[in-house]
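Researcher: Let's do a round of design. I'm pasting the structure tokens now; please hold your answer until I've finished.
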């Protein structure tokens, strides 16, 4: 898979709990549709499956096991289960969409596993990164939009609903997750664009769109040019 050139464009949206990831994903797809990118967009049904963990029958089942507190799952097991779900989603949805030349905007991906599963201090970035590479079938995003938000602000947005396994961990854990996201961003400056999650939704979508647009233009023009040359 690492050798194959994907014709589509792969974006991941990352950040902690309730930072606005799903809101941004939905807003960006709507914006792209309005701007005339309709031919490059997945169907509504496909878009509804573009989130991790989940998006296939197997991955949704793994999601339930991971997020409910039914089983005791340690961080090694969690890394493997998140990546089992990931490889299922890659194989049956994301890789086919990218082969068709679509714009895939995925709600959470490898950086969440790195930030969360290294949040307890028991696992190294290197170990988790290796498993992530394998689970992602060596296909990493062309662009990652990382939403940064103070933990207190984010968790206040979630106060109404019952909390899952990760949401219910303490503030110190969530601060460590945020710190890990910062470290990942520093390590991947070409791939990751950080967005200020405290801005209103409309501004977030605009800022993300302005980061995405030039990259889409370059990506899809280069593809057209190489096809015109018969490459
Ligand atoms: N930029 C924003 N400013 C204020 N509230 C927001 C913003 N983005 C999302 N929200 C609200 O915060 C909550 C969590 O947003 P959501 O997109 O579901 O986050 P996530 O997918 O990261 O958990 C929702 O109630 C949503 O309406
Ligand atoms: Mg969400």
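Researcher: That's everything. Go ahead.
Model: Designed sequence:
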């Amino acid at each position: 898979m690492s050798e194959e050139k994907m014709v589509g464009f792969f974006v991941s949206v990352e950040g902690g709990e309730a930072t606005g990831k799903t809101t941004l994903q939905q807003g960006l797809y709507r914006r792209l549709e309005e701007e005339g990118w309709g031919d490059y967009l997945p169907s509504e049904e496909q878009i509804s499956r573009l989130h991790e963990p989940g998006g296939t029958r197997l991955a949704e089942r793994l999601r339930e096991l991971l997020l409910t507190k039914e089983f005791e799952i340690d961080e090694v097991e969690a890394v493997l289960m998140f990546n089992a779900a990931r490889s299922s989603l890659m194989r049956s949805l994301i890789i086919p969409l990218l082969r068709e030349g679509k714009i895939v905007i995925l709600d959470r991906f490898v950086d969440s596993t790195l930030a969360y599963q290294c949040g307890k201090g028991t696992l190294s970035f290197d170990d988790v990164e290796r498993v992530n590479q394998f689970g992602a079938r060596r296909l990493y995003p062309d662009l990652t939009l990382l939403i940064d938000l103070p933990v207190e602000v984010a968790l206040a947005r979630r106060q109404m609903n019952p909390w899952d396994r990760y949401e219910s961990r303490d503030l110190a854990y969530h601060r460590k997750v945020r710190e890990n996201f910062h470290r990942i961003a520093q390590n991947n400056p070409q791939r990751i664009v950080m967005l200020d999650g405290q801005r209103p939704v409309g501004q977030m979508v605009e800022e993300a769109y302005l980061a995405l647009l030039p990259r889409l233009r370059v990506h899809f023009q280069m593809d057209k040019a190489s096809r015109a040359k018969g490459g």
